[in-house]
Amino acid sequence: MTNVYLDEKYVGTVDNPTSFLKNIKEERRKQKLPLALNINYDPEFNEIGIHTSTGRVRRPLIVVENGQPLLTEDHLKKLESNELTWKDLVDQGIIEYLDANEEENAFVSLARKYVNKEHTHLEISPVSILGLTTSLVPYANFGQSSRLNRGSKTQKQSLGLYAMNYLLRLDTDINILQYPQRPIVGTFMHKLVNFDKHPSGQNITIALMSYDGYNMEDSLIINKGSIERGFGRSYFFRPYSVSEIRYQGGLIDEIGIPDKEVKGYRSEDDYKFLEDDGIVYPEAKLTEEDVIIGKTSPPRFLGEMEEFSIAANTRRESSAAVRQGEKGVIDTVLITENAEGNKLVQVRLRDQRIPEIGDKFSSRYGQKGVVGRIIPQADMPFTSGGVTPDIIFSPHSIPSRMTISHLIEVIAGKTGALGGTLIDGTTFSATSEKDLRKMLSKLGFREDGTEKMYNGVTGEEFKAKIFVGNMYYLKLKYMVANKMHARASGRIQLLTRQPIEGRSKGGGLRLGEMEKDCLVAHGASLLLKERFDSDKTILHVCENCGLLAVFDRIKGRASCSKCGASAKVSKIEISYAFKLLLDELKSLGIFTRIGLGSKY
């Protein structure tokens, strides 16, 4: 007997699971059962699972019976002439939706020519096994799946034109590429998603070679001339908003230039960009800590204060200032009301980001890397035709990752750029490599994409032929300007007295176990001590009994509460976190003694 479960609940048993499955599927195709129902048989546990719950991922497939797909040429003609619709095909049981469970019992053919009597279903198109962003990757069938996943992810992180009305929106943390282009090598999905309306990269010339070791590992060398011509430039937008909040007792915030008597008043220099209404003017160039919107708030705690006391009437400063480590130009100023009817001021800061060392770029195949060096155009290697590449990419990134599609795009992009055509790189049905080679040789270039190149510094010809071509490259949102983080002494946590965390709050950067090992290996002991002094504290310890001593600051002498004033007390330097541990152990009734070197 085979157990049957409906949405994970036991509902009964059946004698013959195979015929039961067949009957259910036939009834579903005749629409006697809901089309949303899916069924699967697990022979290992001898269970049948029926699923009707919402939220399952399901995909359409063509039904195959006796080695023949139910979708015929006649159906296709009727679809083209609008005599049939997709819904009609689903209703007639020609196309059905399978979820992940039912697909376990299905044998799906990739193409009509491979269908045999064992197959149960046929893919509508081989491309439908890919997701939306993955199908935007050209020549995806020439790369391995893990790199394809990574290529899909990098496209989501790329900068471009995410919305046409971005100037009217106040979205948080937005990047816009200045000169986005449509790719030379694309897929059919680019047309379906209107990629031309919101492109997210640029077509560049790329050379695969090592050059002075500055593109080791995954680094890239970028041509400074390309950056000056606009390659990889983007804008970063950061919105700031301030509202006048009403408090209990009739008190209210005030937007305006704070008065000098206000508690927490900054320097006059900080308010220099504010106009009479306390709001910054458009196109003002600001740096970190400059005030954008001036605001004062009533005192926080009015508890037991007298109504007419001076303290009760002292307002506090609560202006919005540019975040730490950021700068920019005021792009937009909006003055409006919020839902409660209170005054709301919204300001957007614009910062131009020009590619610099450490910024991240990527191709569409998961070949991501950071800028290792920016070289002047005069020092860049050049071809016999005088072409200098925009990017020099390390050839060592190819063999282990096996991204052959990356290499094919270089040839396809070169062919498209020289021939003035767009190349179709749709997965499984792309322009073949043989055709690309023929087209390239007709255009007067070597069919393998390699060219003679010369050293930009010495003018000597390189002994090897260099693989050069065109490619669609993406600038990713991870930029050095958003990651730069350093501080001296600053704010600390109340409990452990260690630096607070978080770049935006001006926190410290944690030195972990492995970083410590690196400094030990380098012999940089003083640097290590400096790192570990972040919560340094001095304790007085009795050398006789090992307990903590008491230090009288007024008299300037220490004494042990157990051994008396005559006991020898020494100062020790320890981490405050360790002192906290000792205190917590005391609260558990464990009395710890500290043994000093002079005694032990």
What topology emerges from the helices and strands here?
Layout: E1 2-6, E2 9-14, H1 17-29, E3 38-42, E4 47-51, E5 58-65, E6 68-69, H2 73-80, H3 86-91, E7 95-99, E8 108-109, E9 121-122, H4 145-156, E10 174-177, E11 185-186, H5 188-192, E12 202-208, E13 220-223, H6 224-228, E14 234-243, E15 254-255, E16 285-286, E17 291-293, E18 295-297, H7 310-313, E19 316-317, E20 320-321, E21 328-337, E22 343-353, E23 360-362, E24 368-375, E25 382-383, E26 391-393, H8 404-419, E27 423-424, H9 433-442, E28 450-451, E29 453-454, E30 466-475, H10 480-483, H11 513-522, H12 525-532, E31 536-542, E32 550-552, E33 557-559, E34 569-575, H13 576-587
Parallel strand pairs: 1-4, 8-9, 11-27, 12-26, 13-24
Antiparallel strand pairs: 1-2, 3-4, 5-6, 5-7, 5-9, 10-14, 12-30, 13-26, 14-22, 15-18, 16-21, 17-20, 18-19, 21-22, 23-24, 23-30, 25-29, 28-30, 31-34, 32-33
The CATH topology name of the largest domain reads Dna-directed Rna Polymerase Ii 140kd Polypeptide, Chain: B, Domain 6
Q: Reading side by side through the largest sheet, how are the strands ordered?
A: 12-26-13-24-23-30
Classified in CATH, the superfamily of the largest domain is DNA-directed RNA polymerase, subunit 2, domain 6
The proportion of residues forming helix, as a percent range, comes to 10-25%
Largest sheet: 6 strands, mixed, barrel
Envelope shape: extended
As a whole number of angstroms, the C-alpha radius of gyration is: 35 Å
Separation, N- and C-terminal Cα atoms: 76 Å
What does the average pLDDT come to? 92
Counting helices, strands and paired strands, the structural category is: alpha+beta
Please, how many domains? 4
The CATH architecture term of the largest domain is Beta Barrel
Q: Tell me the total number of β-strands.
A: 34
